[in-house]
Amino acid sequence: MGDSDWRPFIYGGLASIVAEFGTFPIDTTKTRLQIQGQKIDPRHVELRYTGMVDCFVKTSQQEGVKALYCGIWPAVLRQATYGTIKFGTYYSLKKWIAKHRADGGSIEHVPTNTFCAAFAGGLSSAIANPTDVLKVRMQVGEEKRGIVRCFVSIYELEGARGLWRGVGPTSQRAAVIAAVELPVYDACKKRLTVPLGDTPLNHFASSLVASLGSAVASTPLDVIRTRLMNQRKMKGQIANPNERIYKGTVDCFLQTVRNEGFLALYKGFIPTWLRMGPWNIIFFLTYEQLKQFY
Predict the structure, then answer these.
(1) Three-state secondary structure string covering 55-113
(2) 105 in the Ramachandran plot: left (φ > 0), alpha (ψ -120 to 50) or beta?
(3) What is the 3-state composition of the chain as percent helix, strand, coil, each rounded to the nearest 5?
(4) Solcar repeat ranges (predicted)?
């Protein structure tokens, strides 16, 4: 990558934003599927959608196509921070460690790549958590205000903790996704370079394989963090005995499995996978093309 260490950060952020715009409606259906059917949350007890297509159609018909892009600006802001830090940190840290290995970085070292990816994913996601909270609240359809007013409202009513709600599972999910996705992509790309060369077809195939593994590994944590982010707990509010909220990651996991069954942790899996596939394809194709500039 040359000596310009800032370029992986800039190109990672730009490619992430392009991928976000291309796949956001799928993410909206995933979020809505994940929050429905919660027996302890009276707002979302009802199973409004039978699947991704049904959610897509009903949302478009009842709220307009624009509703599928509700939350796009906090999502773009998230990618501008999360994507920039994640991919820049991964490739920069991976390169730095490779220089100090005995092989000089001539081969892909999976444990090193996994560590770098998990660290980069967890760190970037924790920093960008407030933008994720805004995105989830707007995607659910109950928050109709703009991004600034939504941010101020959450801070005033719920405090700083409201903006970092769900940061634990969010960071864990991001670390899992990155730890699977990035090393698998790099390994597949290197393996396929012999028959396919360093071409868009190689990048397409490698990103598709990487997305399946990361979707399987991360969906349960994604369900948990979505539910934690969507719940509200006002500052100084006296607990209502008839209303329950999740106390944290473990409680949300146990309550979800106990009340809805284990498969509830995979609610929204299809749109998650269908989004990760195109998202990764768009991202890596864009990123690899941007790399041609240096």
Answers:
(1) HHHHHHHHHCHHHHHCCHHHHHHHHHHHHHHHHHHHHHHHHHHHHCCCCCCCCCCHHHH
(2) left
(3) 75, 0, 25
(4) 7-96, 108-191, 198-293
Nearest CA among 59, 54, 57, 61 for reference residue 71: 59
Q: What CA–CA distance (Å, rounded) separates 208 from 279?
A: 9
pLDDT > 90: what percent of the chain?
A: 35
Radius of gyration of the chain (CA): 20
Classified as helix, coil or strand, 231 is coil
For residue 248, the surrounding DSSP H or E stretch is none
Q: What is the 3-state secondary structure (H, E, C) of 162-185?
A: HHCCCHHHHHHHHHHHHHHHHHHH
Q: What angle do CA 264, 270, 272 make, to 5 degrees?
A: 90
Please identify which residue in the block is written with the tokens 């399946």.
Answer: 212
What mean pLDDT value characterizes the chain? 86
The pTM score is 0.73
Distance CA 94, CA 115 (A): 9
Residue type, 103: D
Instruction: Give CA–CA dist 265/56, Å, rounded.
Output: 21
pLDDT value of residue 235 = 61
